[in-house]
Amino acid sequence: MLSGADADAHSSRANTTTLVCEAPADSDDPYWAFYEEAASAQLREWLPTAPVRVLDVSGPRARFARQMVAAGHEVVRVVGSLGIVDAPGESDPAPGPGQLRRVVGDARSLDWFRPGSFDAVLAEARALSFCLATETTLEEIYQMLRPGGRLLLCVDSLLLGLARLAEQHRWAELSDVPRADVVLVPAEDGSITRCFWPEELRALLTSAGLEVDWIRPRTVLSAEAVRRAVAEDVSCFPTLVRTEVELAAEREGESIGIHLIASARRPD
Question: Which of 32, 112, 130, 204 is most buried, by the most CB atoms less than 10 A from its CB?
Fold first, then answer.
């Protein structure tokens, strides 16, 4: 965990780090395939049925944008200018009745869009955990949304941050977490991510002017439970995903698993 001058000293390096997911793109781990399907199902449930204009600030992963285009939405996807490359196949034209536009820019600072330009904003793939000044980014997202517009985001949970600090044997920082206003966790590659507990995330969203619909864990089932179930019967995969989505909704407000997801809206 870093704070004060230490965070300032590292933030410039973190800002130039390519956003990555927890799993490598070529991972054949059944848990990460399950995680991806759960994320897709949660996005599908959140999206409106009628076509809307969506700002996607989810980093280098284009899979969410492609899913929204397939559902008929107009998607403006922010692509960073610092060597971010789409995963194999994700740079191909997105199939579906919607439309995808790619815009080169900094997803951490959105003041270059006209206020009220979007019906929805998607900040998947832990994007806001890489925006260390999350408060500022959320205020700008509020400005980008039309009245009644919605935000869906995914961030690192405090549980994940604590686990990483323990893996790095940062015992002093671990003991400081209960007194910390902000928890920033360094990674081996020099990047820093911000971790959240549900109450903190709710307070940030509310302070930005947004009304919180819900905050819940991305996943509840453990990796080992998923791997064991798939090893015993691979056909159970769709049932596992449906169960996961239902369990996550039931555990609203709890800090379980490695990531949190939240839905909020700009008041009418």
Answer: 130
